[in-house]
């Protein structure tokens, strides 16, 4: 019995020694030296791991920068000073890109949309979507249960008194978590300079949609008529902004419902809907 234990221990020890030697040799001759600049660049990045740059995290973005596969300006979360510091350190062009923020294409809060039913299931947009689309009469609008708020790991979204998500542009990293969380695909990521926002996705027109929501687009087409030629066109009863650089606030002046708005900062302010609709 003792001899068997000694033999087993010897065999296991020999195996361990053999594979240890193999690993030591592999480490000595097969290891890949890591560029020390990766660590330095990573320290200059914000560490949010938001993915807005197109990489899964700041570490992989630092590796891509050192390898020359991308530009420092792809990180729209970093301040311009940090981007310039990385560019100077690596000896490359900064390639500054415009910051993007999440925008919601619905303005139909609880005071604006006719209540259709009482929903008593889980307080989740995705759950309500599969149960008769929640409580509100408009099946294309925000459900108001805050899946986007819970999905945002940067605390950039909060629900206002109208049960609409408010995005804080300063905190938004354009990570896209809210886009994925919304079952109705109401969020898009827009360059912050694109200030004209269509706050409706309902394809109905006239009284058919106004009976459901007081702030929905009724397809009157005035915004398209007031825009420069070719800048906005109506498609499926909704305005489509074709050239964001050529439109201005005048496109919103004749909108009877406030469905198209000029956004300077936060898309929605914490005010009753009666104050938002003229």
Strand order of the largest sheet: 1-4
**Main sheet overview:** 2 strands, antiparallel
Give helix % range.
25-40%
User: What proportion of the residues form beta strands (DSSP E)?
Assistant: 5-15%
Radius of gyration: 27 Å
Q: What is the H/E order?
A: HHHHEHHEEHEEHHEEEH
Helical stretch tally: 10
As residue ranges, the low-confidence spans are 270-278
User: Count the strands?
Assistant: 8
Structural class: alpha+beta
End-to-end separation: 93 Å
Shape: flat
Kindly state the mean pLDDT as a whole number?
Answer: 88
Write the layout of secondary structure elements.
Blueprint: H1 2-30, H2 36-44, H3 58-67, H4 80-90, E1 100-104, H5 125-129, H6 147-151, E2 157-159, E3 165-167, H7 177-181, E4 187-191, E5 196-198, H8 207-210, H9 222-226, E6 232-235, E7 238-241, E8 260-262, H10 273-276
Antiparallel strand pairs: 1-4, 2-3, 5-8, 6-7
Description:
The chain is flat. The chain is an alpha+beta fold and 278 residues long. Helices cover 31% and strands 11% of the residues. A two-stranded antiparallel sheet has the order 1-4. A two-stranded antiparallel sheet has the order 2-3. A two-stranded antiparallel sheet has the order 5-8. It has helices at residues 2-30, 36-44, 58-67, 80-90, 125-129, 147-151, 177-181, 207-210, 222-226, 273-276, and strands at residues 100-104, 157-159, 165-167, 187-191, 196-198, 232-235, 238-241, 260-262. Helix 2 (36-44) crosses helix 3 (58-67).
